[in-house]
Amino acid sequence: MKKLNLNKIVSTLGFLLLLLFVFFRENLLLEINAILAQKDWNRAYNFWFADFFMSLPKEDLIIWKSLVSISFTILIAFFTLFSLHYWFQDIRYTKFLIKLYLLVAGLIVLIAIVAYLTGNFNTIYPLLRRIFGVIHSPIPLFIFFLLKKVTK
After folding, report:
1. What are the start-end ranges of the H helices in the chain?
2. pLDDT tens string for the chain (152 positions)?
3. Rounded CA separation 44/86 (Å)
4. Of 2, 7, 70, 98, which residue has the fewest beta carbons closer than 10 angstroms?
5. What contacts 61, CB < 8 A, 6 or more positions away?
């Protein structure tokens, strides 16, 4: 009988938490964005905080949107790193992913600052949103699994 690998179990639990946080982030931002856009309908999967968000003034809602984005960026990155580290047990992968996150975050900030200073922020926002979407997903973790499989 094959021995259970505790690292794989811990990594899988981290991955499940990662997926859960991705779901919560998406749902919360769909709620907030629908309220900010003053839409009659909301594409959120659940409406856990809709009453709370609807009670907030627009300025506070924008702050909440930023806080939700920043908080979930940190949580999703943490659980991606956690899962990757425990699955592969190779600090090189963990360090590489940390550098990749910092590089992407730096790129987003740099592009946003330049776009803001040149008055083109609204034009460039969809690109920034797409780049940010990769950070807010399990894609970086999937890429490492794919690379590991290909390089065997």
Report:
1. 6-36, 50-54, 58-88, 91-117, 121-135, 139-150
2. 456 688 889 999 999 999 999 999 988 988 898 889 888 777 777 778 888 988 999 999 999 998 998 899 899 999 999 999 998 888 988 898 899 899 988 999 999 999 999 999 999 989 988 888 888 888 888 888 788 777 76
3. 32
4. 2
5. 32, 35, 36, 53
